[in-house]
Amino acid sequence: MSSSAISSELAETSGTQPDSKLPYKMWWSGGFYPHCVLLASLFVCTDAVPISIDKTKVTAPEEKVQEAPPSVDTGLHYDRYLREVIDFLEKDQHFREKLHNTDMEDIKQGKLAKELDFVSHHVRTKLDELKRQEVSRLRTLIKAKQDLKGGKDVAVDHQVLLKQFEYLNHMNPHTFEVEDLDRLIKSATSDLENFDKDRHEEFKRYEMMKEHDRREHLKTLDEDGKKKEEEHYEDLKKKHADHPKINHPGSQDQLKEVWHEADGLDPEDFDPKTFFNLHDTNGDGYFDEQELEALFTKELEKIYDPTNEEDDMVEMEEERLRMREHVMNEVDSNKDRLVSMDEFLVATKKKEFLEPESWETLEQNQAYSEDEMREFEEHLAREEKDLNQKSVDLQKQKEELERQQEQLNAQKVELQQAVEHMERLKTQKVEPPPEVNVLDGGNAIPAAPDSSQPLPPGHMQDTSHS
């Protein structure tokens, strides 16, 4: 089958014109969901009929309903709320029409948010309910985090809390207003624009921690062990670097390789327009970030094999991200994080596409400098010192508590012994000792008998002094 025939067939089955432009797609993929399907894929699609044909004389083809591909989680902590708000807004006819006719810049400036005042009462009621649920969820989440950190005694960072509420107006937790939609658009746009930057930082920390662990392991070995470990490390690096040539991402050579190996077509028949239609997997007329990243799989397989000890799959995903960012920077002229058919075709005529420079892979571009590594290890050392000090403090507290417990136990034993002694005295019924009188001379004599007691025989009571 020729490339032109393939292109025609793809245009028919997709139900859209390959070069059609839908501004609202930019909002979904460029501002809100650069890592998800376009908003248009959530709509019901019908076959397009060429304008030049009289529709009254054309038999309408059977309507084809395309299933929306599964959305990819954005990674935002309010991802579900974002999806639900968009889902209900696009059900409103007025808002849907405005979305079609609003460009990305106007959306970012808040012009689309003002259209919220004109949506149906049913949609506004549902949005109010979604907001109340989201405020409740966020409050529960924050409380749970505080409880984990120690409850009421822990100081609260109010700036961090406000940042978590930034995507909605928490001063009004009951109704969804224009300000809420404006905040949601701006927050999601900003957060997603920083998404790749955050991924690079996470990867850098991963690489530095891996190197730190390796160096710490070397400290535990003797000289012979260190030598063998270093030799093994260098051997793995050489094995990893020994791979076929990597084509420059997005170049003619790289795309032709995909055309030949993945699509099974003759490289001599390479046609950019047909290639675009083949790999625009959701048929929306754009390459989104996932579709672009899929084009680099063959290149990445040259470098990384999950069965090889020397190949790190975390590094593979970082390499994929680097390739996608490079192509976006080269091809995405309007910076909407989408590649249209027109942008793609223009790029295929550039010198960078036809005669690209060699591509430097990760092993040729270390993610961190030695200064960054030193600062990272110093940070780890400080953290370890703090943890050790806390451990010492906790041990002292434990010892003090144990000492106090021992004292309490000893007092408990003494009290128990005293109680037992008193119980024994009661059971033995011990008689009290006789009373004694002490004279002035200090000699004790028995006390006079009680006058109430009878005297022995032969004794008379002296009553002369009474």
UniProtKB/TrEMBL annotation:
Region entry Disordered, spans: 216-251, 357-405, 425-466
Pfam families: EF-hand_7, NUCB1_N
Basic and acidic residues bias: start-end ranges: 216-237, 376-405
Keyword annotations: Calcium, Cytoplasm, DNA-binding, Golgi apparatus, Guanine-nucleotide releasing factor, Membrane, Metal-binding, Phosphoprotein, Repeat, Secreted, Signal
Transmembrane segments: none
Keyword Calcium: yes
Domain EF-hand: 267-302
Stated family: Belongs to the nucleobindin family.
Protein name: EF-hand domain-containing protein
Protein's organism: Aldrovandia affinis
